[in-house]
Specification:
elongated; 7 strands; alpha/beta
Length: about 325
Amino acid sequence: MADTQEEFAEIGLASGEVRGLLVLSGRAGIDETVGGVRIVGERDALRAIAAFGSRLTSSQVEAVLARAMVFFTPASAPAPVTATVPEPVIPSGPREVDQDALLSIEEVDAALLEGVLAQPIEEWMSFLHPRQAKLVRRSFAGPSRIRGPAGTGKTVVGLHRAAHLARTRPGRVLVTTLVQTLPVVLSELLRRFTPDVAARVDFVGVHAFARGVPQERGVTFRLDPTQSDAAFAQAWLRVGVPSGLALGRQDQRYWADEIQYVLRDAASRRSRSTPNCRGRVGVTRSAGPGVGTCGLCTRPTTPNCGTEASSTTPT
């Protein structure tokens, strides 16, 4: 299975789209998974395949088929078997075999209808750029970081990576984010394109995770904002003032506010500044759908300001 996933990653097929299916001839009512391979009866194969719905475009199907024709060795006809069977003492008469049709027309129609009604998926859920597909399956010796501008597919790679780990490793997979609203969104996206492993991936905000660790161990605590402010004041005197930050027109309160916005919003916001606006670079506070607010002048974004709000669509 791993070799097949690696081969089709060369054309961008997500590893989760390569599935093992073993069909047992003459059997029905079987649906089990052993070692990552799904085992179904012959009469259940069509429904098992059609349930995934339409996941690839016609051009992607052609690309996958062309790759498969090269990668898989064509099966040759088996060598004829010659057996010598002694003549029976009492020859038996001919027996009529009652062979039902493999699938009835009604069963075929029901399976195809189920595939049509399956929730549609977006292209990024099944087909990636080949470089993204390779990153999803890559083995790292330690922590790694993927960097890139907005829209280059970092979140897409992260989602497929989580699904790949859940499918190939034991235990659970944890995905954290600095944005409080993203865990629900990411969890739903993962459920849409890989429901078989979605239950093994946990999405949680960083702050919620940090609170949950001591709580699960029975450790009680109380967050004290005044102590946090006092700690920042000490850090400002020890680092901020000597660094020259205090020489500008932004004071200690501005930089404390700046850090809070960066920690909370930088993961899902992107902006730029122009000479006409001296607002924060890289941070945009949302003032409504499609509207940003400049970090310094607190006005809605305009062409002169140059900031822009981003959505939570995975990129």
